Amino acid sequence: GTPGSVTGSGTANYHARWTASTTLGNGMIQDNNSTVSINATPNSSYRLAVTGSSLSAILAENAPTSIGKPAIYASNQSNTSGSNYTEANSANSVYGLALNGGSYHFGVFGTRSDDPFGPSAGVIGTCDYTLGTTSWGALGYQNSSQTEFGGFFNGKLALKSGNFYTSFSSGTQAANILYTLPTAQGAANSTLVNDGAGVLSWGAGSGVNTFTSSNQTTTSTSGTNVTNLSFSIPANETWSFEFNIQNGCDGTGGVKWDITFPAGATMRAVAVGMLTPTGPTASDVMTTSGTQTTGFNTFVTTNGWTRITGSITTVGTSGTVRLQFASVTGGETSTVYDHSYMTARKN
Asked: Edge-to-edge strands of the sheet including 120-126?
């Protein structure tokens, strides 16, 4: 048949679209010869502006027959350096903004298909686009064995603080290693303890070394805790310990010692110390919590010493092992001198 005439009118800078079979009108695309927009007002800050309204703004799909063909390729080739980590002061190839602060808003969302293929990830970042095997990090990662990870990193992992950072890296491994962290905060001065299968818990650690920083005195016949000469011990563990104490007494009664420890624990220790300036020495076996030894340093001196060694095993109850001292004769002053020291370790 005879072609119909084309009618219609439009607005400057709008691309035309067929509003009917023979009628042209405004389309969604605007082009002001500087910027282009789709369903949006041209924005002088963006060469192309797209507003999705109630739809996704852009869908990009491809199914290339060879690798290295992304659905979208973005490259920022500016030679101008940025000044910080904000969008306005850095050079970005892709920028994502979660605006208005609603729940589950994400600046960038990446995921992978839940299939049996790997390695693959929702998002990956590398330090060299030509050598992706140097240092890289992936989010939403599945390896070739179909094990899934929230984050997977090849190279060092660093935490930045001011102008410095703390870095973690793995050593050369012959097998995978899995650690399970504790479910609660540990007590002061506690350390992570491995059960041998990678399950970590808070414990007192495997060793304690400490010493007295000043002189300490008592005139009491009841046990007084020696400052700093103590250690925490978890339940169901065996520890060895040694106390080396420089001590003295201003009377002839001398100094006596005891060790307190958690209920239910068993301990065997021996105290060896001086009786006179030139000898002989005395010894006493210690097995009961709070039970005092015989007197040591039964002469007026500041140059005596006592050494206590032993081991302790806890059963069901954790607690603290403490060294105590007392005067054999009430009113006489017994002294533990500074730099007396203790060592303890888990067996």
From this structure: 120-126, 136-142, 148-154
